Backbone:
């Protein structure tokens, strides 16, 4: 146990390596890439934490997990206590332990980072969350919160909505989530692939919320089946976390050719509709040479999916250089290991097709980096006359998403930004009383954890709003 | 789960299902559709809502078996249930007072046409209905449409009912008669039929509205799989439609995109037991 270790011994422990499925093998299956730490590995890694008084890691966490506390319990081998702390702060720890960009949030602030690499907070979170799922009988049974008598409608069962629901349920409020699709989880279900986030994990996290008393109704499209106004009448407060479900189109010639997908469609067919499984009827075009346009996590998910569906060449086409890619470093490394090709500083000009209407190629423009743009990244500038053609039979557009107007179009009084996102104050409150919002519908396309942070943040504001009204 | 209350066979493999779906029944407007996901692991199938009864909390769908999932839907008996139904989706029909209107239906499209034609008649339009099909058993709802139509013209390819030929033959006659020439046309049916109607009406400049049914997944604008070209613009049929100005529709692209999964669909049908295969209607695309 850690108590027996000297400072020198603690400093000598090297950062753990995540055990992974062999790259060659995994590039042909949909099983999870990261295999998870053993108990011994997790405890040893936890012992590396120096328990800083200032806790910089916590400041980096959008849901403010008490990181040093759960790690200390783990270092002492007290898994029930570690799980108890983690679950109290984070509604979806098994999800976050897998998909959060820890390297930009908690781990980047770890004081051990400079010399021997930060404590692997993400791996430890995943370990404790997975252990808790497998050992529910060992978790301390929390007291059931007293019912407040207040009800809240949550629109969307993605990361923001699930976090919101968990927080509110703990406060004793009655929560009903309305989900547009036939299954729960939002982007966790339709967007992130099985090999990065097994759907069993999403099922378990959702079940835990249902056990807390949260009701989930699928097949309800707010804006169509019910309006925001109806929800406001039937519930004491409403939280909108319906995501940024509208693909930004490339607006290029040939975009409507067969074999050209938005990343949303490509990933939804595979993840939600099971196109990767032989026992599901959902069709998808199994390209031999697949180009995915974009450099974010969605692009990495799509290109690695294409590889697993049998693509001989699976290519990332990105208009800037690798340094500007918004994707997580881990995803980029994993993609490269799996044989993904990166064609950088290149942008599509035209999608080429044959007489039967199938995509056959991409005509591309070579780019170079110019001055930084509004995002602080160097702007890609076309190199005059430098174009080339790429032979492909599937193209996936992963350049981004925008706010879906279905809900907001039927709520004329709700204040929106110029881009159609819902405007909120720092607590998540919209201009309508009792209506709050968070996640991608407010931010545009962002990350799971930022959406969860919004959910947690707005839950506190909703609780205050409900208590004020009482 | 959504309970099927009634399931009648209208024509070979064309069924009318009355389903309990109170929220959808309450919100539904003419021209809108639902997505039916019959079971876990099934496909999501877009189907136009033919009728809704908000008091009874029911919706009526007309479904033609064209593949394994639609076969499963039509095979759900009264008392059985469908796992997921989401909607109502899409925009509502813009009902105007055009004056004389021709409503043209082909095959199961006639079922989608029926509530549309009735709404047009209710808005004081003089409705002439033209319905066509392969043969007599495929002609549906003729009596129901006759209740509010000035006349119902029937065409069959084999001449077994009404006039032998296509709906366009009957429409041409209507257009050629100054007393009956329509000021607007609504056409719902197989894509080649809608396309032929649009080509026929185009030179006369008669406004022609069609209801499109491209390949779709979520029905909320999220995936963009249902994109169609209207004039020079790409639109999503699920949120911008399903009804469009037929003269602006790029039918060649629509036909082409509908064939995207032809191989996979044929394989799925081929894997069904022979007695079920017989129940599937081959649709012209």
Residues:
């Amino acid at each position: 146990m850690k108590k027996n270790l000297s400072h020198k011994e603690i400093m000598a422990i090297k950062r753990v390596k995540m055990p992974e499925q062999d790259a060659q093998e995994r590039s042909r299956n949909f099983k999870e890439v990261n295999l998870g730490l053993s108990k011994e590995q997790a405890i040893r890694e936890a012992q590396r934490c120096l328990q800083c008084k200032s806790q910089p890691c916590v400041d980096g966490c959008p849901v403010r997990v008490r990181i040093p506390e759960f790690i200390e319990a783990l270092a002492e081998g007290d898994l029930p206590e570690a799980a108890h702390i983690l679950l109290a702060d984070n509604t979806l720890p098994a999800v976050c332990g897998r998909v959060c960009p820890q390297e930009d949030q908690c781990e980047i602030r770890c004081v051990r980072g400079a010399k021997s690499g930060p404590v692997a907070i993400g791996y430890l979170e995943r370990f404790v969350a997975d252990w808790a799922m497998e050992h529910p009988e060992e978790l301390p049974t929390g007291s059931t919160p007293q019912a407040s008598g207040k009800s809240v409608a949550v629109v969307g069962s993605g990361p923001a909505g699930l976090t919101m629901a968990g927080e509110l349920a703990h406060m004793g409020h009655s929560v009903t989530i309305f989900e547009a699709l036939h299954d729960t989880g939002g982007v966790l279900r339709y967007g992130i692939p099985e090999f990065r986030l097994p759907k069993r994990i999403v099922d378990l996290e959702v079940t835990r919320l249902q056990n807390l008393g949260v009701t989930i109704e699928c097949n309800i499209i707010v804006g169509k089946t019910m309006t925001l106004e109806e929800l406001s009448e039937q519930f004491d407060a409403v939280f909108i976390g319906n995501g940024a479900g509208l693909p930004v189109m490339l607006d290029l010639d040939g975009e409507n050719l067969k074999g050209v997908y938005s990343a949303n469609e490509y990933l939804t067919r595979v993840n939600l509709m099971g196109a990767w499984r032989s026992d599901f009827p959902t069709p998808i075009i199994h390209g031999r040479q697949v180009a995915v346009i974009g450099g974010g996590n969605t692009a990495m998910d799509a290109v690695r999916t294409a590889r697993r569906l049998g693509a001989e060449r699976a290519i990332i086409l990105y208009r800037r250089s690798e340094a500007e890619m918004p994707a997580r470093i881990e995803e980029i490394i994993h993609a490269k290991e799996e044989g993904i090709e990166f064609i950088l500083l290149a942008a599509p000009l035209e999608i080429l097709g044959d007489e039967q209407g199938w995509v056959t190629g991409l005509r591309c423009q070579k780019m170079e980096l110019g001055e930084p743009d509004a995002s602080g990244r160097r702007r890609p500038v076309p190199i005059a006359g430098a174009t080339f053609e790429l032979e492909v039979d599937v193209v996936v557009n992963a350049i981004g998403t925008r706010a879906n107007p279905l809900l907001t179009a039927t709520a004329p009084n709700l204040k929106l930004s110029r881009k159609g996102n819902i405007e909120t104050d720092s607590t998540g409150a919209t201009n309508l009383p009792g209506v709050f919002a968070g996640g991608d519908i407010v931010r545009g396309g962002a990350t799971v954890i930022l959406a969860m942070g919004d959910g947690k943040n707005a839950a506190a504001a909703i609780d205050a709003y409900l208590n004020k009204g009482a | 789960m959504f309970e099927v209350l009634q399931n009648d066979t209208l024509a070979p493999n064309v069924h009318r299902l009355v389903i309990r779906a109170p929220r959808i029944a309450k919100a539904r407007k003419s021209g809108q559709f639902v997505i039916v996901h019959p079971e876990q692991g099934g496909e999501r199938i877009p189907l136009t809502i033919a009728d809704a009864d908000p008091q009874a909390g029911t919706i009526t769908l007309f479904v033609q078996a064209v593949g394994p999932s639609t076969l499963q839907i039509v095979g759900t008996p009264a008392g059985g249930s469908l796992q997921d139904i989401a909607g109502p989706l899409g925009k509502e029909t813009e009902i105007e007072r055009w004056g004389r209107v021709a409503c043209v239906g082909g095959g199961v499209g006639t079922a989608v046409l029926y509530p549309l034609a009735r709404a047009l008649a209710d808005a004081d339009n003089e409705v002439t209905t033209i319905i066509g099909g392969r043969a007599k058993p495929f002609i549906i709802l003729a009596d129901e449409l006759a209740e509010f139509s000035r006349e119902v013209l029937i065409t069959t390819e084999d001449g077994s009912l009404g006039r032998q030929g296509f709906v366009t033959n009957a429409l041409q006659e209507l257009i050629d008669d100054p007393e009956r020439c329509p000021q607007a046309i609504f056409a719902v049916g197989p894509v080649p039929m809608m396309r032929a109607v649009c080509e026929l009406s185009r030179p006369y400049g008669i406004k022609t509205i069609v209801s499109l049914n491209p390949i779709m997944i979520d029905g909320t604008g999220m995936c963009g799989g249902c994109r169609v070209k209207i004039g020079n613009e790409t639109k999503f049929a699920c949120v911008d439609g399903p009804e469009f100005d037929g003269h602006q529709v790029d039918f060649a692209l629509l036909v082409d995109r509908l064939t995207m999964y032809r191989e996979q669909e044929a394989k799925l049908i081929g894997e069904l037991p022979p007695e079920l295969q017989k129940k599937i209607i081959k649709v012209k695309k």
Remarks:
- The interface with chain B takes residues 180-182, 218-221, 224-226, 245-247, 249, 255-256, 258-259, 261-262, 264-265, 268-269, 273-274, 279-283, 285, 356-357, 404-406 of chain A (CB under 8 Å).
- Residues 448-469 of chain A form the longest helix (22 residues).
- Chain A has a mean pLDDT of 94.
